[in-house]
Amino acid sequence: MMQEIDAMPKRVLIAEDEVFVALELAETLREMGYEVVGPALNAASAMKLACTERVDAALLDINLGHGQTTEDVAAVLRDKDVPFAFLTAYDRLSVVFLQPDDHVFSKPVTTQTLEQALRCVQMI
Questions:
Q1: Angstrom distance (rounded) from CA 66 to CA 1
Q2: Which of 44, 61, 79, 121 fits as disulfide partner to 83, beta carbons 3.0 to 4.6 Å?
Q3: Percent of the chain, pLDDT > 70?
Q4: Alpha-carbon distance 21 to 4, whole Å?
Q5: What residues pair up with 69 in beta bridges, in sequence order?
């Protein structure tokens, strides 16, 4: 049974409001062998997936448009001990809800940036 669990692809939640960016992230993750949860294009969808799906890690945009952020999603993931990283265009110091140990990576996201983020959330 343990071998079956280890053989299952790691599931990564994507929360990103820019459709093109979300689809590109999803495609790259699938090519790397991960199973994508989402992508969630808004805070409500991201929260639903974080609460109901098995998620091994998450990549979260900070701002999901229309005044929505992933602050509450990050709180749920913290409570569930699910590692995550933020992918954002915002400066770390301008985001009041970030915690000191949060991983923050700048957009635009390159393959190298994505690999660094996945390393930080213990996925590679």
A1: 44
A2: 121
A3: 91
A4: 32
A5: 63
Q: In sequence order, what E strands does the chain have?
A: 11-15, 35-40, 57-60, 84-88, 103-106
Distance in angstroms (rounded) separating the CA atoms of residues 6 and 106: 31
> How many residues comprise the chain?
124
Query: Which H/E stretch holds residue 43?
Result: helix 43-52
Neighbours of 36 (CB within 10 A): 19
Tell me, what's the pLDDT at 2?
A: 47
- Residue 95 pLDDT class (50, 70, 90 cuts): confident
Whole-number pLDDT of residue 3? 45
Question: How far apart are the C-alpha atoms of 95 and 65, rounded to whole Å?
Answer: 15
- Taken in order of first residue, the domains within the chain and their CATH numbers are 9-120 (3.40.50.2300)
Alpha carbon separation from 107 to 7, 30, 111, 116, 117 (Å, rounded): 31, 20, 11, 13, 12
How deeply is 89 buried, as exposed, middle or buried, from its count of CB atoms within 10 A (0-12, 13-18, 19+)?
A: exposed
